[in-house]
Amino acid sequence: MTIGVAIVVEEDGRTTEVSCVEGAPLETARSIAKRIDNRDDGKKSYEDNGYIFNVLTADAVVYLCAGKSGELKGRVAFDFLAVLKTEYERGGYEDKQNISSFERFTSAEIKRYSDPAQVDKITKIQGKVEDVKKVALDNLDRLLVREGKIEEMVESTDKLKEQGSLFSRVAAKQKCLERKRNLFWTVVLALCCIILLALIIGIIVLIVYTS
């Protein structure tokens, strides 16, 4: 249990006590509560034998709670004491009325504050921040994976473009060679025709002269 002892010492010395522990921690809590100067408003903390004792003094009333060091956070303890102070002042317990009701309220609050994650606002905010952080990291991981895939697609597209460009250049060269080859054979054929025509004319002329 986070909070093991809760003590309220009124201006006239009357004490209201709710405790879940016995022995030295309880005796130390009683001793501190009685020795605190109730004219000195403020917050104080003491440590002894593995326990931490948090004190809130206001309007000549001393509010004290104790728990194991490392388990009871200061902000949780003083939030708990502030709740006790508000209830004490609201309920008129300083007039010695319904003390048993105040004790029941204190016991219920001790149980509620046994789970600081449900009460400590900072812990709640930290929990929400961690949740948001986890979601953000998950989204970032997915984004990085997606970017990786996009980069692979872009790289593949670039390779395809390079291959397409190379194919276009090769095709253009091939077409140019084909045109040159066609032109060459056209010239050769034309020369052959001219030579053949010249031979035919020569033969005709020779026949005419010999006849």
Architecture blueprint of SSEs:
Elements lengths: L4 E5 L5 E5 L4 H12 L6 E7 L2 E8 L2 E8 L5 H18 L7 H14 L3 H4 L1 H90 L1
Antiparallel strand pairs: 1-2, 1-5, 3-4, 4-5
Helix pairs in contact: 2-3
Family: Belongs to the synaptobrevin family.
Subcellular location: Cytoplasmic vesicle membrane; Endomembrane system
Main location: membrane
Overall shape: rod-shaped
Using the 3D structure, state the CATH architecture of the largest domain. 2-Layer Sandwich
pLDDT average, as an integer? Answer: 81
Listing every helix as H and every strand as E from the N terminus to the C terminus, the arrangement reads: EEHEEEHHHH
Approximate helicity band: 55-70%
Strand coverage percent? 15-25%
Helices, by number, come to: 5
Would you give the CATH topology of the largest domain? Beta-Lactamase
The overall number of domains is: 2
First and last CA, distance: 143 Å
Low-confidence stretches: none
Structural class: alpha+beta
Q: Give the radius of gyration.
A: 50 Å
Largest sheet: 5 strands, antiparallel
Question: In the CATH hierarchy, what is the superfamily of the largest domain?
Answer: Longin domain
Keywords: Coiled coil, Cytoplasmic vesicle, Membrane, Protein transport, Transmembrane, Transmembrane helix, Transport
InterPro entries: Longin-like_dom_sf, Longin_dom, Synaptobrevin-like, Synaptobrevin-like_transport, V_SNARE_CC
Protein name: RSNARE, VAMP72-family
GO biological process, one term: vesicle-mediated transport
